[in-house]
Amino acid sequence: MRLLWLSFGLICVAAAMIGVILPLIPTVPFLLLATFCFARSSERLHHWLVTHKRFGPSIEDWNDRGAIRPTAKRLATVSIIAVFALSLVMQLRPTILLVQAVTLGVVLVFIWTRPN
Question: 78's torsion region: left (phi>0), alpha (psi -120 to 50) or beta?
Answer without folding.
Answer: alpha
